[in-house]
Every structure is written in structure tokens, then in C-alpha cells.
Batch of 3 targets.
Target 1
Amino acid sequence: MGTHDYDKVSFPVTYEAHAPKDIKFKALKQTKEMNCVELFKVLGEDQKLKKFLPIIADSPVYPVFYDAKRTVLSLPPIINSDSTKISLNTKNVFIEITGTDLTKCQIVLAILCAQFSEHCEGKDKFTVEPVEVIYEDDGKKLVTPCLDIETFEVEIEYICRLLGIQLTPDQINKASVKMGLTPIKSSDTSKLVKFEVSAVRPDILHACDIAEEIGIGYGFNNIPMVYPPTNTVGAFIPENKFTDLMRHELAQQGYIESLTCALVSIKENYENLRYKADLEEAI
């Protein structure tokens, strides 16, 4: 992910691959231009960035973004260029996302665009301009970001059954608005509810996710507590209850609990020790 000052970028932008020694630019927080071989030696001492270097370090070519003037924008997924960095004077932002999973890239881009658009001024508030991506191998064109709205139509009875309470369509719609969903007219208003879900909610994939959102919006604390339809009553095992009390007391005395795997194979270790002792005795 990279964010750049749009007004400092000359379009079109190209995504290329070159040998490390052939990519030369001034990276963020660096004092001079370096090729990637030199840059990686410097970043190898950086506590935050050095853990990302192995992602491309062994590759014969590195991915790089160039603009129309052959200015390096970024070296994904390592670091951006200093030439297009965002400053207090930035008015427009250009966002680039790279990855091996197109769906995840589109989700991240949609969320970032939505968040950045909140800072647009005046009549341009919540304005996002699309970019056309052209694949070199097959000429495929893709317009991003994808801000398509998904719609979900769910049975009222299904929502009520999952939550264990009876809700009217008005109560469901009121709860959905609290969770950022947009109620729209369904095909059968007496049995179904329908919602529009924005592109920034990729976590909503199924009707059960809608039911969960309704439950949160309604308030789980507002659902009456009832005994389950069984003949048993749950309770702590006495040993567990005692150890929990001991754990709290010891923690209050300043002790730190540490759970290790040292005693997982105690039986096997015990048998090995017995075998070793018998062997030494026989010798």
C-alpha cells in the first residue's frame, strides 16, 4: 500500500520489474539516492523495515512503480519514494495497492478511499476518482476502486430465530441503521427485510451476518435472559473455580503467570529417565 501526492505524479503510472541495481531513487527518510542493493543494506539496520526485506530480497527482479517521467513512486512492498510523499500542503492523494490476492486488494482500496474521502473539502466531500488499470499481458482493463453496493434480503423469521426474540420490521430497520446498513423496500414487507451494504463492509457475506448486525444494533443487553430449554444447569468444576481464585490472588501479589509446554510429555520423559537409570545400573 502506498499513498502519494497526486499533484507530484505524472500519469500514466506503470508497474514494472527490474534488477535491483537498475532501480535507483531516494527512499523515504533517506538522505541520498541509492539503488536497491545499497538501499537494502541500509534498511537491513532498520528495526521496522528489515523484517519485510526477505519478501523480495532473493528475487532476481524487484517490483517498482514509475510515473511518466520515470520517477520512482514506490518499491512495493518495502518503501515509498521521497519524491511523492504526502505533506501538509497535499491537496489530492493517489493510492496504489499491490498484492497477490485481487479481492483483498480491492477491499483494502475501497476502505482507504472511503476514509480519505471524508477529508475532502466543501462540495467535493466524499469524492473518489477512479483509475483504469490495464494489464500488459492480455490487455484486460479494470476500473478501481470498486465501490459497488451489495444488497441482502433476509427473512424476518430467520433473524428472530437466531436472536431468540421477536422483532418487528420497524425494530429491525432501526437497529440496522445504527450499524451502517441502509434499509430498502423488500419484495414482501411482511416477511422479508432488505438492506444495502456499502463496499466498506466486506465482513457481511451472509444472512447470518445481517442477523448479527441487527442483534448488535438492538443491543444484546436488551434481550431478556431465560433458562435454556434443557434440564441441566451449568456450573464451574470446583477444581477450576479454586484455581481461578488462586490465580487472581497470586496476580494481585505481583506474580506473573507463564504457561509452557515443559510438562506436556512428562510420562515419556519419566520413562526415558527410568530407562537411562536402569542402563547406567546395568553398565
Target 2
Amino acid sequence: MHHAEAIMQAILALITGLTTTGNNVARGRPYPVETVPALTLMQGEDSLANGLQNMSFVDRILIVRIVCHVKTGTQFDTDLNQIRREVYVAIMANRNLNLPNIVIDTAPEGDDEPELSGDGEKNIGQQVMNFAVTYRHSLTDPGA
């Protein structure tokens, strides 16, 4: 398995079962969210870390995006902030994501501005959280 896949699975496990969103967590959802509050986990860019490689390993930075979804109302941003806090605590409690032989560090990369989407009765507020996961793999195999 590619180390990026192991990272995505580890994050999925960490953000499933949070107080506010519970098990309403999906990975790379291409369709609208029906049950809220919820989270969507998406894999972003996976780039080489500057100068962090040698003849035996490569260091990379994987961007992980977590989309928080809530039902819109008068204070949807309050609900988003609660979810963002729970997600942040879950991920930053163990910055190697329980993958000490793979993950070097996890760092917050900032959160996007809240957005509204939907039509009439099914308006959804959402906000994207971004994390940078620095990890290492063999020069010859991204799964080793």
C-alpha cells in the first residue's frame, strides 16, 4: 500500500466517531451530503519536500483536506467552529497519526472561508480544513 493511502486511512479513523459528527464521515464524496453534521476527507497534492531526500529515502508532503458540513441556520459558523475544534484536537493529539515509521509530522495549513451551498430547504454550510502531513518512503517504493 502506498504510504499516502495509509495516511488517509489513519486520518479517517481519527475523525470517525467525533462528538458532533459521529460516523457521518466519508472519503472523497463526489455527491452532496445528505446527513449533517458530517465530514468529508479528501486527498490533496502530494509533493516532494524540498531537499529532503537521499539515496535511500524520499520525504514528501501530503495535503489532506477535511470538509466540515453543517445545516445552515442563524449560527452555522458556530457549528462549524465546534466541528473544526474536534477535528483539530483529534489530529493534532498525535502528530504522527499513529504511523511513527511513516509520518514525520502533521501541521495545520489553515482553513478556508465558510461557504453556503444547496437549494432552499437543503442549504448546507461547509468549511475546509487543510493539514500538511510530512512522511518518508523508500526511494524505490512509495509503500516501503
Target 3
Amino acid sequence: MTDELFTEEDIIYTYTDEQAVEDGVLMPVSFGAINLVTDGIVSRFTRQSFFDIGKFNSFMSEAARKLSEQQKEKADWFYAVVIEKKKYFIAQNGSNGFTLMLPEEY
């Protein structure tokens, strides 16, 4: 008996992080353990074709700090953080890091 929930034969389809980046669904970043963000996060900082990099960097730094704090308390694959009174999810990804996303994107 195996401890794995699924075997390789059970997998019908995979969609890699690399494919999601190519499709524009994910964007690579470098903020602590967070190495990917969703298009939904990026669009929060885009207004009339202008991307507010300063606000984005500040937001991402706060998300990375909160993730780091939670990781010190408990190692897990999934975390929820609150930034500016809004909830966000941070989940382990297939690219040796974590993806920050809006709850509706999970």
C-alpha cells in the first residue's frame, strides 16, 4: 500500500507553473518565499495601463513578511494572510516557492 493519494497513472492533465507564466496567468516575482503571483494580484496595481510598481513592491514585501512569520509558527503548504483588511491565500507551488493569490483564484 502506498502513502500517496494519487499515482502517476491517476493524473489526467497537468498545467505547469511555466505554462501559466507563458499564458499570463502567473507572474514570476522574488519576494522571500513568494516566487509567483496571479494575474488577479497584478491587476490590483494596474490602472489605465499604468502599473504602480511602488505600491506593488510594498504590498508584496508585506505579504512575504506575513508568510515568513506564519512559516515560523507552523510549516505548511497553504497560508492565509490579511493585508489592508483583505484576505489573500499563499500556496506552495511547483516552482520551489509559493504563489500569492486572491481567494477567488484558489
